């Protein structure tokens, strides 16, 4: 059984169809990359998997770990082990980063029948993860993402991922806006989390991130459909030729149904 | 429906009886203070919404209720009944029942030398000269009919005197309990706090009501005299029950380089008006007014500030956050007056509001009057809802919707909480806010839709 199985997924926003029949199978231990031009539906796919309710699933099925993902609320999906690193992490004033992360960890631990972690034990638990992501511990006492630089926000996402230890991690354009040094740090953080039980889906526009997180499979999403799937070589090909050719292919492709 | 004349008649009767028997009735200055104030009240009556300062708050419900002066408190009020209102880690808490000091219920812990904490009624009898020097000297009864009414019935409340150079680390807490009567009752507590030069202290006024009481009207005034170079903080906590009317005025007189912080936390009451009126009379004074109001049901919470810059090089900051649900109506009226001599004034005002339901309402009105030419004054107000993005962000990390809402509300309220100094009072206030928001988050959309359709009665401020 695959960890994630998407069958013929159609999604609309305001009656405008964005995903037009996605089929995808992701097994535990694999890293998949979904690449595509702006507006192709990459972020929509990521958000639907994280169960954002503003998207309207018009048809199709998504099974995750044998369960119907589309019947889950965002918090249920998270407790079941899905994590999405946001393209635009949200600022939340008045709530410290440490308090937020501990609340999230405890919600998930509670769901798994584990004891809650108190404030004293919490920070020491993941000090090494802070170091790995080159994050100042002081950021933990600041309000969530408030006044963080772009790079700090993205590192904060990966820190959350490292602490919450998801089964399926979806990175939504985590590389956008990062300079090469920050990109390396973020990529190392993600790469360190690869293991046989965990699947990672890297959503990106550019191939650059994939030099550091080398995927097992690359899929090209154009106009709401996956038009090509292949190995990392496909990403390099895209980098050279751009999406132009595939967009033309997509226009001539017959609809999935 | 009773007429305006009838409204005043009941006060005339009350005043006639009161005046003959009140503490200090034989003191000519006090007699005059009361009579002048009562005359002023009779002359103007209760304010209406035609009065600019009361545009958003209709007090007809107070004017039309025949309130009688509360009797001397319920016979047997036990320490146990007051337990929920005790601030953990506090050495002194003066208890006032229906505006009257009750020594047996008060906690009179050890305070440093140089601090005198007493009841105003007792001091009027034993120490009238000290009271005469300050009482009614700062409050302008011509500005506000409720202040006139309070002064007409001035008798008891807290008297605090802090000698120059004294540092009081422990907060001095004043608990005002209204027990309610079968008939609608009123009380007019009056506090006088005089902090001499170079002293430091903090004060808490906590207004509560016991369950089961009927309509109660508490009209309170505090005159806070902040001498030169003093560092003072004042907390006003309103959490009476939903049949309570509370009008409060904090009049602060600031000397040279005095630093005063005022925190107002309005959580309870049916119709509440909190006036904070600092006058920065000495050069280099600083004043921070920090407010949080959280309302639901048909609560009406009105925050009125008047900050007067009367001297050069003073700074003032006003931050008010409001959270309103149900049919609650909030008002923020922030007025800053910079007098001609008050050059180099630096004044800033911010009001942020969260409306959690379609029927909740906020009126926010900044008002700057600047007569000096070298000043820096800014103001701003925002009104919004809980952000969908923030809610989704928290939920996507495993936090359920109700908890996520609570966390966001608490984060919003924390902006005010974070301006309070760490210590027992902040912990206490944090606990109150937490409880209040917990209830609110549980009745928010998506959590339980039942709760939200409870009553469709009128808002207190809409009663004509």
Describe the 3D structure:
The complex is a heterodimer of chains A (257) and B (464). Chain A has 257 residues and is an alpha/beta fold. Chain A has a single domain, classed as Rossmann fold (3-Layer(aba) Sandwich). Helices cover 34% and strands 28% of the residues of chain A. Chain A is built from 9 helices and 12 strands. In chain A, strands 6-9-10-3-11-12 form a 6-stranded mixed beta sheet, sandwiched between helices. A 4-stranded antiparallel beta sheet of chain A has the order 2-1-4-5, covered by helices on one side. In chain A, strands 7-8 form a two-stranded antiparallel ribbon. In chain A, α6 (150-164) runs parallel beside α7 (180-191). Chain B has 10 helices and 22 strands. Chain B is of the alpha/beta class. Chain B has helices at 4-21, 28-44, 60-64, 79-82, 120-126, 128-132, 145-152, 388-395, 401-417, 424-442, and strands at residues 68-69, 92-97, 100-101, 107-108, 115-119, 158-162, 172-178, 185-187, 190-195, 200-209, 216-226, 231-238, 244-254, 259-266, 271-280, 286-295, 300-309, 315-324, 329-338, 346-355, 361-370, 376-384. Chain B has one domain (4-386). Helix content of chain B is 23%, strand content 36%. In chain B, a hairpin with a 2-residue loop joins β2 and β3 (100-101). The radius of gyration of chain B is 21 Å and the shape is globular. In chain B, strands 1, 5, 6, 8, 9, 11, 13, 15, 17, 19 and 21 form an 11-stranded mixed beta sheet that branches. In chain B, α2 runs antiparallel to α7 (145-152). Chains A and B meet through α2, β7 and α3 of A and α8 and α9 of B.
